[in-house]
Specification:
By secondary structure, the protein is α+β, with helices and mostly antiparallel strands. Helices cover about 10% and strands about 25% of the residues. It has a single domain, classed as Beta-grasp domain (Ubiquitin-like (UB roll), Roll), CATH 3.10.20.30. The relative contact order is 0.26.
Length: about 120
């Protein structure tokens, strides 16, 4: 059995950005941030995707159980984001670990994410 499952296990994620829906291909073991950047979907990431800021804040509307639970570090960073909800995650930490049973994952990228590097506190 091959350890590389990402090449044949992908799911289409519906991404809502500025009221517009886009599709994103997400592979097993891949973060939403990495997939978005690779596919031309703008998801801010001031820290480079290492869980050191809150700029890649997303909301997972469907398929949240396909990702591991948020770590304490991620929750600390989410405390700095605006409009955090129970379905809030950091795109850099939301790594696909299991395929959705119903085949659906949908997320929203808030248009007001704060880039702490570019904007004053």
């Amino acid at each position: 059995m091959s350890s590389d499952t990402s090449s044949n296990q992908t799911v289409t994620v519906t991404v809502t950005v500025d009221g517009e829906q886009k599709s994103l291909q997400l592979a097993m073991g891949q973060s939403i941030l990495d997939a978005a950047l690779a596919q031309g979907i703008d998801l801010d990431h001031a820290c480079g995707g290492v869980c050191a800021c809150s700029t890649c804040h997303i909301k997972i509307h469907e398929g949240g159980d396909c990702f591991p639970e948020a770590s304490e570090d991620e929750e600390d960073q989410l405390d700095k984001a605006r409009d955090v909800a129970l379905n809030s995650r950091l795109g850099c930490q939301a790594v696909l670990e299991r395929m959705p049973k119903d085949g659906k994952i949908s997320i929203a990228i808030p248009t007001w994410n704060v880039n702490n590097v570019q904007e004053p506190h």
